[in-house]
Write a structure and sequence with these properties.
Layout: E1 2-8, H1 15-25, E2 36-44, H2 48-59, E3 65-76, E4 80-88, H3 90-100, E5 121-126, H4 130-140, E6 146-151, E7 153-159, E8 165-172
Antiparallel strand pairs: 1-2, 1-7, 3-4, 3-6, 4-5, 7-8
Length: about 180
């Protein structure tokens, strides 16, 4: 049985800032690149072809879109997190996530989706100790840069037994071709 996740791995010109924050505060920093999760980790026996076909069908009407992240906010739900806010591209990410959670992936909708509305974000920290969390919140208030790019691809990763991310496939968002 595979443990998979579907994500966007944005590429920003100033990615070093995000990497620095994650080195300090994100225990998964060495396991997975900075990302925005569309379909949260799920164990499954879906074949490569089935998942690829599903994603390609879902994405057939989705075009590349602008993404802008700015501002780090604390978020508490089953842990103390630091989220990099999405200021542009939020609606597109929500739409893609909803569409992905249909068909062969419908049964993998997390239970917590029924309790908390999906807030697209990039996790840049998860801090266990309360005093360290409060210090991290203060420390990250100084980050005022924006991070901008065009999202033109989604990735499916396999999460191995060490929590390392292994890219299984990448699927491009198609530009509309005019005849």
């Amino acid at each position: 049985m595979l443990k998979r996740c579907i994500m966007i791995f944005p590429k920003f010109s100033n990615m070093g800032i995000i990497d620095e924050i994650r080195r300090k505060y994100d225990p998964l920093e060495s396991h997975v690149k900075p990302h925005i999760t569309l379909v949260f980790p799920f164990k499954n026996n879906i074949t490569y072809s089935e998942i690829r076909n599903h994603i390609e069908n879902v994405l057939s009407s989705i075009k590349p879109f602008s993404l802008k992240l700015k501002g780090i906010k604390p978020f508490r739900y089953n842990g103390n997190y630091l989220f990099l806010n999405i200021n542009k591209g939020n609606d597109e990410i929500i739409e893609i996530s909803k569409k992905l959670y249909t068909g062969v992936l419908e049964q993998y909708i997390p239970n917590w989706f029924k309790l908390v509305s999906y807030q697209p974000h990039m996790t840049v920290g998860k801090i266990e100790k309360e005093d360290e969390y409060l210090l991290a919140i203060e420390d990250t208030k100084r980050i005022t840069e924006s991070f901008e790019t065009i999202v033109d691809m989604l990735s499916v990763e396999i999460i191995d037994e060490n929590e390392d991310s292994l890219i299984e496939m990448e699927i491009e968002l198609k530009m509309e071709v005019l005849c």
